[in-house]
Structure formats: C-alpha cells, structure tokens
Amino acid sequence: MSNDLIPDTTANGANPADTQPPRLEGPQPQDEQPKVAIRKPNPARILCGLVVAALWVLAIFFLPPWSLVILLALSALICLFELRSMLKRVGYVLPFFWMSVMTALWYTAMYLTMHYANKTPNELGLTILLPFVLLPIFVMVLFFRVLLSRRAQKPMETAALAVGAFIYVPYLLSFLVPIALCPKFDVSAGIFMAFSLVLVTKLSDTGAYFVGTMLGSHKMCPRLSPGKTWEGTFGGYVVSLIGALVIIAAAYIFKEAACLDFVRALTNTPAKVMWALLTVIVLVTVGICGDLLESLFKRQCGVKDSSALFPAMGGFFDTFDSLIFVPAAFIFMVALGGLILG
Fold first, then answer.
1. Residue 247 exposed, middle or buried by CB count within 10 Å (0-12, 13-18, 19+)
2. pLDDT tens-place string over residues 91-103
3. Distance between CA 318 and CA 290 in Å, rounded?
4. Which of 1, 18, 69, 97 has its CA 20 to 30 A from that of 130?
5. Phi–psi pair at 47, nearest 5 degrees
6. Domain edge (last residue) among 132, 150, 174
7. What global pTM score does this model have?
8. Does the residue 3 lie in any domain?
9. Of the candidates 40, 67, 276, 102, which has an alpha carbon nearest to the alpha carbon of residue 191?
10. H or E element in which residue 294 lies
C-alpha cells in the first residue's frame, strides 16, 4: 500500500517525534500519597467535659447518699427523654410519663433494698424482693399501655422499644446504687468505688479521644462511629489501666482511709490485683459497646447527637452511653472473681 494513502495526523505534516513535550532533566516527581489529616482536640469540648466532671465529683462526695440516688434517677430520666426524642423522629412515641413513674419507683425500691439489707430477716421482710417483683410488673404495664393506645401507629414495635428502653437506661444504670450503698462497707467506700467505676470508664473515653484525635488513622467502626479509631481505642485501654493502678496504689498508701476499704477488699492478693485489672479491661470493652450501641440508635434515627445540651459534646445520653453497661459488668466480674479466687 502506498504511503500517500495513509493520512497525516500531525499538524502541518510535522514529525510526530517533534510534537512530544520536552523531557525535564533531573529526578521526576513521584505520585503523592494521600496523607492522614491530623486533627486537634476541641478546646470547647475539653472545657465542657472538665466542668461536667467537676460538678459530678462535687455531687458524689458532698451530697448525702439518698440524694445521689435521686440524682442518678434524674440522669437516667434525662437520657431516657433524649432516647425517646430520637425514636420519635422515626415514628415511635414511647410513653415517657409512665416510664418516668416506673423509674422513680424502681430507684426507690433499689434504695430501700440496700438501706434494709443489713437488717435482720424479721425487719427486712420482703423489701429485698422489691426490684425482682417490680421489673416484670413494669414490663407488663408498658406493654399494655402501648398496645391499648389509639395513637400508637406501630403498637408491637413501640411496646418492645418501650420495654427495651427502660431496661437499657434506668434499669442498667440503677446497678450503681447497690455498689455505692454496699452494706458490707462504710458508705464512703461504696461511693468511692462507684466513683472509681465512672472514673475508669471516662478515662478510657478521654484517652481514646486524645490519642485518636492526634494519632488515629485506622477506623474502628466507620459505619457507626466514624471518629473512633483503633489507635484511640488502644490508648483508652492504656489510660484506664494506668488510672486503675493509681487507685490500687492509693488504697495501700493511705491504709487508714475508710473510703478505700472496698478497693482493698478486691485487691488484697496478687491474684485479685490481676483480676481487678482484667475487670478494668472488661469494663472498658463494655463501655465501648455502650458507645457504639448509642451510635447505632443515632444513625437509625438520623441524628448526630442525642441533644445539644452540652457544647461540642452533645447531649446527656452522649455522656452516659459508655457507663450504661459498666455497673452490671462490674458486679458480674466481682461475683465471678469470688467464685474463682475465693
């Protein structure tokens, strides 16, 4: 075939080699790798967290025990109200009034149970059975209240959510009451142990926030909590264990302090110290689960925070989510440790 039949695709018949861009001399730039954005801690969130923590410390150590039970019940009600508000956005209206009445009765029963726990059987009567009797009654009342309501568009789902919400928030948080008012120790020892549980859990949240903010690059559960990283989670475990070791050391440095009797009773042998540290790991783990579960609720309801109560922190529920499963998990680990270690 003649070359005349081949069309010239270059401008003005120029040599294709002449149309190539000039080659730069020296090392060629490599494709840039995406860099992980380094975030900085939010000062407003830190300040708000410190203020909230200070208020809780003052309340725990300076209010009488019965008022702490009231404060805990009110906290559970605020969390429950925020959860109800989130669920209302997706068409589930929980009977908050009845749930509030049941929460008040439940915490009263828990307080009376611990108040009379060190009495003789004749004086005790059936008080110790109050919580066990009330729970099935509450479940029945909530089911029938929702099922018989004319306003409930999805009665079965709403009834199940109402029962689940009551167990999830007021019921599980109420296990702080028997820890704080444990009749085996002075009330100051029980209150300090309850404070220690809150402290260890929040140290995990704090460590995870700072380490994750500054060093986090591997997402832990992006579908539920995009900001949570494996590096932050590891940092939370480390900070919590350090905090637990400081509390244990303080119990034996200040041997005369009655408020540390509960801690000493759980750490008076090397084996119990190791079990206590394992308990801390379990508590941090269930705290993370509580955080992720609340994140799941928020995702399903289409909200970022449970409310805008605290600047840069979210709502009351957002601050309590990691604490919800901790008291019950602590009681379980103490009971299991007693069976294993004696």
1. buried
2. 888 999 999 999 9
3. 10
4. 97
5. -65, -45
6. 174
7. 0.80
8. no
9. 67
10. helix 270-301
